[in-house]
Design goal:
Shape: globular
Distance between the termini: 14 Å
Strand order of the largest sheet: 5-6-7
Largest sheet: 3 strands, antiparallel
Oligomer: single chain
Strand content: 5-15%
Helix content: 40-55%
Radius of gyration: 19 Å
């Protein structure tokens, strides 16, 4: 049982209703988008903005389709086979499109591949998960001990950082705070399935370099680290934060999820301590309900949008990966439960008569570029749904 920001108890029945709302939203989004991938919600046009191939986050939509298919098996008002067909069709589209040298290949093939296999027992999908792990291992830069960004062009404003910015260094010489989760998680899964030490070694090496390059002394994170051809660090900077002295909230969440997964996989104290510093910083700089502004230290925060995707990713990391029987992480898990309760009570549309039923509000994709600010984001829905499923069926 968790409590929301007002101290009210919230638990199983409310969470089942919340997951039902999110799965309903998958159905309405599928009605609206068909063979395309929902991306961010255009509130002015009252429609989903879509991509043809999923861009960087197509695995989230595929994962939502599989989650809805599983939920529909116990709900006669929903068509499980329809969701499974859509999941498989979108998987083939993304399989053909996804650049293998992109850090996002790992995350997307984890969700479409390994987690699709978890739902279906389809060994072909298991093979797709392994292909994602192989791609991330091949992309690993031995000198930098990092999987770099790669070459996928993220859909968004022309200048990602906003007007007056430049395009930054090439993707093969830049790492990101995101990568500890987006690129590395598929390696942990592949090692657990195969016991091939090459997957584990790349994951540990990347995670240890992450501690050096992205975790700052006060517990917050850098967004990017640029390295030269040999792998030597050149500089660190923030692209989607307010500035280099502040902290991009979603980057902090990616690091929380990545460190939680690294701790689960290894039990290493160094990852838990870094995770503790992240969560302490988060708690000190977020509003009382645990749902932060898009930047933890942005000036005039009352005038700035929140980002529910930060909260959803953080709760997901703390509750999906941290062991339930480990007293050392009990407080971290408790914080994850509190954030989850806030998302369900305050930010998820639960009125089944509302056209927006199942929408998670107040996501903020790119504030510097003023793109998809204060709206629904497909990845927020995914991480909230997966966290609810984890809590309901551990």
């Amino acid at each position: 049982m968790s409590t929301d920001a007002n101290g009210e108890s919230i638990g199983g029945e409310e969470y089942r209703r919340a997951l039902a709302a999110l799965c309903h939203r998958v159905g309405t989004a599928l009605d609206a988008t068909g063979d395309r991938f929902p991306y961010v919600y255009d509130r002015d046009g009252n429609r989903w903005e879509t991509t043809a191939n999923g861009n960087w986050c197509g695995g989230h939509w595929i994962g939502l389709l599989w989650r809805a298919a599983a939920f529909a098996e116990d709900d006669t008002s929903m068509n499980s086979e329809r969701f499974e067909r859509a999941a498989r069709g979108h998987t083939e589209t993304m399989r053909a499109y996804m650049p293998r040298d992109s850090m996002f290949c790992g995350m997307n093939f984890l969700y479409a591949g390994f987690r699709g296999y978890d739902h279906s027992d389809d060994r072909g999908l298991f093979g797709l998960g392994l292909a994602g792990a192989d791609a991330m291992r091949a992309a690993f830069h031995e000198g930098a001990r990092q999987i770099p960004l790669g070459k996928l062009a993220i859909k968004g404003p022309e200048q990602f950082r906003g007007p007056g910015s430049d395009h930054g260094p090439p993707g093969d010489r830049i790492g990101a705070v995101d990568n500890l989760y987006t690129a590395v998680s598929v390696l942990w899964r592949a090692y657990e399935e195969t016991r091939d030490p090459r997957f584990r070694d790349a994951a540990v090496s990347h995670a240890d370099r992450h501690l050096d390059w992205y975790v700052r002394p006060e517990g917050k994170t850098w967004h990017h680290a640029v390295f030269d051809e040999t792998g030597a660090l050149e500089r660190q900077y923030n692209e989607l934060a307010h500035g280099d002295d502040t902290c991009w909230a979603r980057g902090q969440a990616w690091s929380i999820a990545g460190l939680a997964n690294a701790y689960r996989a290894t039990g290493a104290t160094r990852y838990r301590r870094a995770l503790e510093s992240h969560v302490e910083y988060y708690r000190e700089h977020a509003p009382s309900d645990g749902v932060p502004r898009w930047d933890f230290e942005v000036p005039n925060p009352e005038e700035e949008p929140r980002d529910t995707s930060t909260a959803a990713i953080s709760a997901y990391g703390l509750l999906r990966f941290l062991p339930r029987d480990d007293d050392a992480v009990a407080d971290l898990r408790a914080f994850g439960h509190d954030v989850l309760a806030s998302l369900v009570v305050e930010y998820l549309v639960m009125d089944s008569k509302d056209d927006a039923y199942g929408r998670v509000t107040q996501g903020c994709f790119n504030r510097p570029g003023n793109y998809a600010v204060d709206t629904e984001l497909v990845w927020t829905n995914y991480y909230l749904a997966e966290t609810l499923a984890t809590v309901l069926d551990p």
